[in-house]
Design a protein that fits this description.
heterodimer; A: alpha+beta; about 15% strand; elongated; transmembrane (chain A); Spore_Ger (chain A)
Chain lengths: ~475, ~375
């Protein structure tokens, strides 16, 4: 331990820190690194190699002789410590020298790029982000080979010191959104940030809202599209999800596959998805409201079916609904926590066996079982995971309101929901844009996904300095018959 | 001196992130004018003018166009809202007193709207519902919306446009129309028709909101055409409603109806909805909430400007006042009295006070020029 230079003492408290003295003819070199972070191959071949072969090197010669591109000389000890903690090897020239050569020998172990599992699509590329930031940046950069594409790197978290990369295209992304985003990330005071989803929650405009205000995705193609539309994308080292902002409510109901399918098919699928959201939120509350208060409201044709199906059920509608909703949530939660194969079994056992048994035991009516199962399915049609969780939770206040005041309760709850959505913003952009404030020219890619000839302008609510995507005139070349 | 073009494009005095585009004035005014009082609108005028009530609707609509024009002359020339104009014209104390009257008017209006809605719910949906419970829930909702600011209120107005789907259900009444009810045309004297027009001022009221949100319009002068358009649309809607009332009911029948517009929902039949009245009655909330929100926003803003307090501290106090008042209004006769009071106040405000302000403005301008 005597040989450790005094400034490295602190680091050598840790058992994975290696420091040894390398005696040359002129002077003794100290070599320090973290065993757990460095690649032994680089260390032995590119650092120890030149050192052992030529014993009479001066400091500058030594620096030049190391055949690694990422190397530098520094005398700032904080900087040196930080670099060593990121896998650099430090070489101190002599016991008293204040200069160190830092050579990058970082060895990052991680998964290789795989197929997206959360946002799987049948069409389109099948690459998903992994935990390594450099791999992720590579996945994006190769889709945006554009000189104005910028990556700004920050470090956040007093313990995690996580590398966070903010990607945008200069001249396409609005400066105001970019600066807001950077400033919010810089202001994060948290110590350990392990994933970008944590960061997401910290920088969102209203962290008390159940609605997500940024979209997290694992698809590099989606990120490339968002960046080229003028949004700001944030990646964090160690996280397989990137997120981008500002976003509006509508974009949560878009899967990226919409852009890979022909526009008519994609539009119809999108409409089904929007309908499924409404169904998922309103179906069970309406069941409660109608059966509790407005029984006379339903037509005579329809009423006997419902009454007959729940004639043996001893509970009031709201209890029946809550039992079923909780059962479905339980199944989902259990399925999500278990390994895939057992999870599937649980799903089948729970879904089919419990469902039938519940009806036979007169715990619930057939009719409700269908509604609850459908609305659970409908909530999974929402492609962004956080939003589909929101949709699932959202129906509970509605159920209680319906129990309290029937249809009126649902109306009040809807208005409160709309008011909440109106108050939300994403990086300062209204959440309900382009519907409110109405931007007629931006309605093209919301409810339907039109043909690409209609995409000639970027969304005006993203306030891009360069709003034109391509010349509109070239898109609409219309010829006469037989010409 | 500014050029004409620059003056036309005059920007609002509020920070731009709180302002609305001029076209949204259409949505705002439409929602404010078309309040829940439409459900009882056609009764009294039809008693007065019979089958000629539709002429009164048009007359009243035209007179409101003139009032809108006058309002814009006053506002455009002063470039600010009525709260500041009052102080500018009549000094701090008299102006303040006038503002206080308007605060009272807006609060009373909010109380009336809320009590009316609760009454509708008690009659059509839940006879046992406690007034205070629903009032509390609605006022909490109102607080949440108003605390979001003016843009959120206009957003709620925009969302409430969904209610016009309910008006399409008037089609269902078509098979019961008696077209003979409409003739003979011009059977009533001009006096009767004008008296009926006076009855229509109450449903038409709502343009006065513009006096208080003028500074929140991004380019206020461009919004005039939208206000006029809103008035035209309202006239068309009211014509529709009054004509359907005429075609469906004889005046004698109508005199026994309290809310004839809700009665019309009984004609609606869908394959799986037996009683549309439930939806019709509950959907009245879309008529009520935006108006109450605006009333409270305007009155709390006036208090804020007069006494330099935070709007967020005033708002709960005003809401409590409204809550107490709503709980205290019991019985139909009180409601009728309040409605008469509001409609009288509205009538004199629209046809007396606003022209008066215009004259004061013109005189002031003349006086200043002569100096």
């Amino acid at each position: 331990m005597k040989s450790v230079p005094p400034l490295w003492k602190e680091l050598s408290e840790s058992s994975d820190f290696v420091c040894y003295e390398h005696q040359t003819n002129a002077v003794s070199l100290f070599i320090g690194y973290f065993k757990s972070l460095t690649d032994p191959k680089v260390l032995h071949q590119h650092i120890m190699g030149p050192l052992s072969n030529e014993p009479d090197l001066s400091f500058d010669d030594l620096y030049r002789s190391i055949p690694v591109a990422e190397k530098e000389i520094s005398w700032d000890w904080d900087f040196i410590h930080n670099k060593m903690l990121r896998g650099n090897v430090a070489i101190q020239y002599g016991h008293q020298s204040h200069h160190c050569i830092l050579v990058n020998a970082a060895d990052s172990k991680g998964r290789s790029v795989t197929i997206p599992e959360i946002e799987f699509t049948v069409e389109g590329p099948k690459e998903a982000f992994v935990e390594s930031l450099d791999v992720n940046l590579n996945l994006i950069r190769k889709r945006v080979p554009f000189p104005e594409f910028r990556i700004k790197e920050l470090k956040i978290g007093s313990i995690s010191k996580a590398r966070v990369a903010i990607c945008y295209i200069e001249g396409v992304t609005n400066e105001q959104f970019l600066n807001t985003c950077i400033q919010r990330i810089e202001d994060v005071q948290f110590d350990q940030i392990t994933d970008s989803t944590k960061l997401q929650q910290m920088i969102e405009d209203n962290s008390n809202s159940i609605f997500p205000q940024t979209i997290g995705t694992e698809r590099p193609d989606y990120v490339a599209w968002a960046v080229s539309s003028g949004q700001v994308c944030v990646l964090k080292d160690g996280s397989p999800t990137a997120f981008f902002a500002p976003v509006s409510l509508g974009s949560f109901f878009i899967t990226y596959e919409d852009y890979y399918l022909p526009w008519i098919i994609a539009s119809i699928l999108r409409l089904i998805r929007m309908f499924s959201v409404l169904f998922s939120v309103f179906a069970t509350p309406l069941y409660v409201a109608v059966l509790t208060y407005h029984g006379q409201g339903i037509s005579n044709v329809f009423l006997p079916t419902i009454v007959a199906s729940r004639i043996n059920v001893p509970f009031p509608p709201v209890v029946e609904v809550l039992i079923m909703e909780l059962a479905i949530e339980l199944l989902r939660e259990a399925g999500a926590r278990l390994p895939t194969k057992i999870g599937q079994t649980i799903g089948i056992v729970g879904g089919i066996v419990l469902g039938t048994a519940a009806v036979e035991a007169a715990l619930t009516s057939n009719f409700l079982l269908i509604i609850v199962a459908l609305s659970a399915l409908a909530s999974f049609a929402t492609p962004i995971f956080r939003m589909s969780a929101t949709i699932r939770i959202l129906r509970f206040p509605f159920i209680f309101a319906a129990q309290l005041w029937g249809l009126l309760g649902i109306f009040i709850c809807t208005l409160a929901l709309v008011a909440h959505l109106l108050r939300l913003t994403s990086l300062g952009m209204p959440y309900l844009v382009p519907f409110y404030p109405l931007r007629a020219s931006d309605l093209y890619d919301t409810v339907i996904r039109p043909p690409y000839s209609k995409f000639h302008h970027r969304f005006s609510f993203l306030r891009s300095p360069k709003p034109v995507r391509f010349d509109k005139k070239n898109a609409n070349l219309k010829k006469d018959i037989d010409e | 001196m500014n050029t004409l073009w620059e003056r036309y494009n005059m920007k609002s005095t509020e920070p731009s992130r709180y302002t609305i585009s001029p076209y949204l004035v259409f949505v705002l005014i439409l929602t404010m004018q078309f309040g829940p009082e439409y459900i009882t609108m056609s009764n009294k005028p039809i008693q007065l003018a019979g089958q000629d009530a539709w002429i009164s609707v048009i007359l009243c609509g035209i007179s409101f166009h003139i009032v809108i024009w006058v309002m814009y002359r006053i506002l455009d020339r002063n470039g600010t809202d009525l709260i500041h104009i009052h102080e500018r014209f009549f000094g701090k104390w008299a102006g303040g007193a006038l503002n206080l009257i308007f605060i009272a008017y807006f609060l009373l209006h909010a109380c009336f709207q809320m009590r009316l809605f609760i009454e509708i719910i008690q009659v059509w949906l839940f006879p046992d519902l406690e007034t205070w419970a629903l009032a509390l829930a609605l006022l909490l909702l109102v607080y949440y919306i108003v605390a979001g600011g003016f843009r959120v209120i206009v957003g709620i107005c925009m969302f409430s446009l969904l209610r016009y789907f309910a008006l399409f259900t008037l089609i269902f009444t078509a098979e019961y129309f008696h077209f003979s009810n409409l003739s003979p045309v011009m059977d009533h004297s001009l006096h009767e028709i004008i008296k009926a027009s006076k009855q229509f001022t109450f449903p038409y009221l709502g343009v006065e909101t513009l006096l208080f949100c003028y500074t929140f319009i991004k380019t206020p002068k461009k919004s005039q055409k939208w206000t006029h358009l809103s008035n035209v649309v309202i006239t068309v809607f009211y014509l529709m409603i009054v004509s359907v009332s005429l075609l469906l009911f004889k005046p004698e029948q109508l005199s026994t109806e309290m809310w004839e517009q809700l009665t019309k929902n009984k004609f609606v039949h869908f394959p799986f909805i037996e009683r549309f009245e439930y939806i019709g009655a509950a959907s009245q909330i879309l008529w009520v909430i935006p108006v109450i929100c605006f009333c409270l926003w305007a009155s709390s803003r006036m208090v804020k400007l007069m006494f330099t307090v935070k709007q967020l501290t005033v708002l709960p106090i005003l809401l409590m006042v409204v809550f107490a008042a709503v709980c205290l209004i019991q019985g139909r006769s009180r409601m009728d009295a309040i409605q008469t009071m509001l409609s009288e106040f509205g009538f004199y405000m629209i046809y007396g006070y606003i022209p008066f302000l215009y004259i004061v403005d013109v005189v002031r301008m003349k006086a200043r020029r002569s100096i």
